[in-house]
Design brief:
It is a single chain. The chain is of the alpha+beta class. The protein has two domains: about 80 residues, no CATH class; about 55 residues, OB fold (Dihydrolipoamide Acetyltransferase, E2P) (Beta Barrel). Helix content is about 40%, strand content about 25%. The chain has four helices and five strands, in the order H-H-H-H-E-E-E-E-E. A five-stranded mixed β-barrel has the order 1-2-3-5-4. The longest helix has 22 residues. The protein is rod-shaped, with a radius of gyration of 29 Å.
């Protein structure tokens, strides 16, 4: 314990280094922002020589402030994407014309989409008929009839 008290403000810079390393090992846990708060407290403590209770208070305030700032202003939800449907693979299939592989009877059948057979729902259609995908509901393809 005496070793830590002898280091003084350098404790904050060491803590910041540890937090930044933790962020590299376990990304997404916000250690980086707590590390930034620790760097600021270390710099303030070196410049002013304030006592450790004030250092802890400043660290707490800065840690909460940086976490809230990042949560509000630096989220991926606020970043526009040039590929808005990137993680919605099913949206790429909507509008595509597919071939009925197993006749759609009583609203259920199978269609070929690429090299895979998908369960389909739609109007009754014979084998070999063309259908247009209008919606994906999980792994179920909703289709409508298309003139050949």
């Amino acid at each position: 314990m005496a070793f830590l008290t002898e280091l003084g403000a350098w404790n904050w810079l060491i803590a910041a280094l540890i937090l930044v390393i933790l962020e590299m090992i376990v990304p997404g846990i916000h250690f980086l922002w707590f590390g930034m708060a620790a760097i600021l407290v270390g710099v303030i403590a070196l410049a002013t020589g304030i006592s450790w209770p004030w250092q802890l208070l400043i660290f707490g305030v800065l840690a909460i402030a940086t976490a809230l700032f990042v949560r509000k202003y630096v989220t991926s939800q606020n970043t526009p994407s040039d590929e808005p449907g990137l993680n919605e693979r099913g949206s790429y299939y909507i509008g595509r014309i597919v071939v009925v592989e197993e006749a759609i009877e009583n609203g259920r059948g199978r269609v070929r989409l690429g090299d895979t057979l998908w369960a389909a729902e739609g109007p009754d259609l014979d084998i070999g008929a063309n259908a247009k995908i209008t919606k994906l509901d999980g792994t179920l393809v909703v289709v409508e009839a298309v003139d050949s």
